[in-house]
Fold:
Amino acid sequence: MIVQIFNRDDETGLLPSELRRGDVFAVHDDSYVPGNIERKTFFFVQITDPPKLEEFQEALIRSRYGIAATENEDPPVILAREWKLEYWLFLSPEQIELIDNTNQLDVLPDGPIDGGGTVTNGILAGRFSINDFRYK
Amino acid sequence: MKKYSHRGMERLGQLLDDIAIKLLTPPETLSLPHTTLDRAIQRAESIARRLFLIPQLPSDMATVTTSIGTSSRDYSTIAGWEADLDNGGIYSSSDDAVGECYNDSVFNESPDIDGGGAIGLSSVTLSVASGERHDGTEGTGARIVRSDITGKILTLSATSSRKTSVEWLEVDANGGRSDPMVSLEGNSQKAELRNCIVHGSSNGFGNDMQGIAVAFSGACILNTILYDVSLTNTGSVDLQAIRVNTNIRQNDFANITIHGITKSGSSGGAYGLYLSSDDVDERARNIISTDVTGGAVAACFEPASPTNAVMSHNLSSDSTASGTGAVTSVTASGQFVSIVGGSEDLHLKTGADAIDAGTDLGTTPSGVEIDIDGRDRDTEGDTWDIGAHEFVSGGGAAATVGALIGGGLVNSGLVNGGLLG
Structure:
């Protein structure tokens, strides 16, 4: 599957429902092709499908909820995502700079990258596995 | 405006202090990677904009249009486009952001369009590219189809400083239990739904159900078709096609077609346009509401005679259309091309009571003159019909809106300028 990672940290951070850097934004099947701007403004990784694929996919985009104030209200989101990939712990400063840069010009180039993995159409494969995602 | 806690404000202060210290440090002594500093500056700027500490200059304004679809577009999903609305690498303060959907494939998502506040966008519009729009009937243009959720399919969240609009999109619950299919939210004003088709929700839950919910004041729904909404629970719960929440006011509803709203059983109620009892400055004009049935009470308009709302030139299949120019007790089959379930075509047909029975709203609110097929009633000098569609005699089947034939713009199967019809 292909995992779309949020790579910015420009939300205020004052509200729990806002995505943070490293949060899983979305999951897609292996045939997915990101958009032309999207591939520069998100970080895409391809990982080998784990057993119980659907359960993993649901978990990766699951939010954590609090308790509703009244019976008629929806419970508030207290954490936008329960899982994240701290890719900055695995990659070089130069690679991180390319991933995090939001000027749409600097991205990981297609082809093999230092430290392992190959980028194809903006998607890094062969570097991460499901075990690299961390529960918050 | 979001509310920040005292603790949050303290954290904000600490953050800005840290950034100020870094900025005052001589460059040669900085040990931060560029991206870290860039992020810190961007973060401080976005927070400052939220707190209105950075003025917005008119000269900075630009319209940034990006494409959304699965065939080599800028974004593959509406959610991806929406998430980037606060991306300083793409937008600047006071920009107008426009996302144009393409009919490459069906969008299977439930976007919540509330971004753009951190950057300070002036407006956010989710639209459909010309040539990719529906022709006034389902399944003909870019659309969101979701039958697998029970909540909202599409949510618009505007603020008093940022208009948020969705136009030309079809929202199809496809027999699923979405409730409501569309929700207009935000702290105040400026949420607009225009030229959309919303349909296909069937819910059996024991709660009130809506097709479109208006949760805050100042929303606008124009030239939109809403049909085939049913609540199969037979208990004492209500179904409202369009519901304005309690204490919500100043909404503008114009040129809307509502049809086929069905509540099962003999308890509860079925309603077409359901206004709040606090209806100050509410307007409902040129609205068709037909075949609202079931429950203990069924009404195309509720209340039939609101206290303060301006009701004019509305049409109902029951007796509840009221005010100037009201048309009541018509048959739905006499108005529309087809009301057959699954192949509805709610364009007006020859002889419909709604034809030429509307009121001319000119060009206010903005876009009110553009009918469900893209016909400009104002520039064409039409006598306005009631509902989302402007009937033109001699018109055939609707053609692709915006397509060009011999230099004319095709609308409703006609070529404006008199080449046909």
Remarks:
- The first strand of chain A starts at residue 2 and ends at 5.
- Chain A is about 15% helix and 20% strand.
- Residues 2-135 of chain A form one domain.
- Residues 2 and 46 of chain A are 4 Å apart (CA to CA).
